[in-house]
Amino acid sequence: MAAKILFITGTDTGVGKTVLAELVTRQLRTQGVRVAALKPICSGGRDDARALRLAAGKVLTLDKVNPWHFRAPLAPLLAARMERKRVRLSEVVARICRVGKRFDVVVVEGAGGLLSPLGEGFNSRDLIVALRATPIVVCPNRLGAVNQALLVLNALPRALAKHTTVMLVSPRKPDPASLTNPKLLAEILGAQRVRVLPWLEFKL
Length: 204
Known about the structure:
The chain is about 45% helix and about 20% strand. By secondary structure, the protein is an alpha/beta fold. It has one domain: Rossmann fold (3-Layer(aba) Sandwich), CATH 3.40.50. The strands form three sheets. It has a six-stranded parallel sheet with strand order 2-5-1-8-9-10, sandwiched between helices. It has a two-stranded parallel sheet with strand order 3-4.
């Protein structure tokens, strides 16, 4: 059977996707699940990919965790073009599916926000759909989070959006917005679809 694919996406870059992907991967390992963690495409450095490789127990080489990496700290599409390279959706899907044959669960971290261009003519939304993955949306728990989370959910196909969990990443110091956002989102989406990642956990 093919692996279950969890796809960690976000409302923006730098919102905590890698931290959540690490935590999910480590938790699955402690439960005895055969899990791999991938960052298929990245630009501006490979620290995220290295962290995911470590979280999964180094079951894959760095180049299998992160097959496409580009030097410029830009959207991957532009960074790839600067190096006269092209990344195609079919190739990325094929790589992930090959890895999935060896594991029960594959945790995939996207690059940037949901609609950030990853390659020629595709973004994380397209990759999620092609993989039939289960999305998790990471969003900083601050003023504006409700709007940001709902915009990302509305950008997903309806059939996927209704099963998507929103992970609110807490700030160092709680404020009125961070204290009330979870309840408001739960009213809109249902309590089972909203989770809060505490600050100390975020710093792991």
